[in-house]
Amino acid sequence: MNIQKFQFFSALFLAFNLAAAQKIYSVDYASQADIKVFVVDYQSQADLNVFKVDYQSQAKGNEGLWYFVDYKSQSDKTIFFVDYKSQADLLIYFVDYQSQAKWNNRSKSHLLY
Known about the structure:
- The protein contains 1 helix and 7 strands, in the order H-E-E-E-E-E-E-E.
- The chain is globular, with a radius of gyration of 15 Å.
- It is of the alpha/beta class.
- A 6-stranded parallel β-barrel has the order 1-4-3-6-2-5.
């Protein structure tokens, strides 16, 4: 395989993995989670504005479009909803419209890759 084909398939593989990075499963215990999440009261407090999409195919990229799967094995990331802001790795706010989903604090975006 020549280097150009290798680079192409490597880029394709990376893009595919990033595109599917928003399949989320909510676990029962903090110790089972990849990320501990706290839901804030206001968008301005959030690291990430999240929109829950209806279909898995809509959960693309790392821009806050989350699809909640039924089984842990289907997920890309597991999360646990904590009771206190100080316990969280990531502060989120659930928005009403897909166009509102975005990072407010890009320094935390690595948590969902």
